[in-house]
Specification:
InterPro entries: 4FE4S_WBL, Whib. The protein contains three helices and no strands. The longest helix has 11 residues.
């Protein structure tokens, strides 16, 4: 039996993300680990902007989204307020 994953239209962009083609360990590293590799992959990703907007709109608190770490997104939110 084969079950297809259903993706809502609002999240269809995630299928095009480079992170979807690599391991989550780059984007959700252990505390204190480097996010350099995740940021490098994000820098090459064609949907980086959509990813960052999603993270900010949904208050994602963990991982690298749109090329920014948790701390960087928090700082961006503070500057935008």
């Amino acid at each position: 039996m084969h079950i297809d994953t259903i993706t809502s239209p609002e999240l269809a962009w995630q299928q095009e993300a480079l992170c979807a083609q690599t391991g989550a360990e780059f984007f959700f590293p252990e505390p204190g680990s480097s996010v350099r590799e995740a940021k490098r992959i994000c820098g090459l990703c064609p949907i980086r902007t959509e990813c960052l907007e999603y993270a900010l709109d949904n208050d994602e608190r963990f991982g690298v989204w749109g090329g920014l770490s948790e701390k960087e997104r928090l700082e961006l939110r503070r500057r935008s307020s």
